[in-house]
Model the fold of this input.
Amino acid sequence: MEDLINRIVSIVSEHDKWRHSTINLIASENVMSPLAESLYLNDMLHRYAEGKPRKRYYQGTKYIDEIELLASDLMSKLFSANYAEVRPVSGTTANGTVFYALGGCGKKALIPPVQAGSHVSHTKFGILGALGIEHIEMPYDKDNFNIDVDKAVKMIEEVKPSFVVLGGSMYPFPHPVKEIAEAAHAVGAKVVYDAAHVLGLIAGKALSNPLTEGADVMTASTHKTFPGPQGGVILTNDRDLYKKISKIVFPVFVSNHHAHRLPSLAVTAIEMMNFGEEYAKQIVSNAKALAEELHSLGVKVLGEKLGFTRTHQVILDLSDRGGAAEAVVRLEEANIIANKNLLPWDPPDAIANPSGIRLGVQEMTRFGMKEGEMKEIAKFISDVLNGKDPKEVREKVIEFRREYVKVHYGYELNEVALKRFKEYLEMALNLTL
Ligand SMILES: *Cc1c(COP(=O)(O)O)cnc(C)c1O
Done:
């Protein structure tokens, strides 16, 4: 037993050390600030708080109530939304809640195709399909990597869907919210903007706020470009919709809602109020720098005539290099973590070896990297893609990464937080410090 326990501990330890020595370019991940991470470990992770603050089904929730109200209030302010629902435990749960509120069995939703970057939760394989809602593919313009507005407007008029979904998982260029919202509203359809990937860029005003552009509701994950704890959020100005949504989150999609993440969420919201603009601007600038350098090193990058990217993402096209499956494994051997991704022209069954690699620079930006560092990363990547031994590159990556360990655009533990953290370790883990 002791051996097994030690193995479990060392798996965690090896994971932690490994991931801190890699260049992580997974576009849907990030790290919290030290303050937010320290607060993540708290007794709320053992508790239930079903229902809404001050209207719970169990006793013992007075501090959870206070923190949930605070977190909702801060998220509302940050996104200039009247209502924020912070109980969904993930972006998928947030989508499920909103899709259920707007649709239900037999209803139709107009959503871009999967190859154009839609998330699995938008499809028949995910929560949309599980709810019995039909995914009708929104016309997509493969040359501009975006929705074909004219055709989409026509289709909205013909199909009269219950709702339209914008936003996605592969998302180098923002969708045209205004034009689509006008057409949708004209036929009584609601507009859902899924900001899972770009919530941090919206918070930092690098992208315009979809709610002011015409979206009725915004769903998101709170841990991608928004550098908070893993979780979900729903934001809206529509009072009736908010009420409906709040009645669906619990009891339909969550019972316990992982309240221990809410202090970290509240802290991250404050960090985004104070450092969000600087952070978001640097992300977009870094993404452009990475794309340009990769391009000049001979790697095919999507969207050259559109300036490669307007978000945190850079999409590589490896269709003339035999696809992405082997490339991402070789990159991992070099301690560069990225994922293979379908491109708009790939058939859906190309999922095992699609043409694309999706890169996101948000986490490395958070560790203080700027345009110059992006050029070095581009060189590491092109070396691996051009056949250099990944083990050789790995040595350099580990050396390079050592210089970037401090999290920027967020708070360290102050005296009060350090005292609380020590007390927690003593009390809950029975340690003597
Ligand atoms: C990641 C993602 C989600 C789901 O987020 P989880 O928090 O992982 O459940 C939903 N929509 C889009 C567009 C995403 O990229």
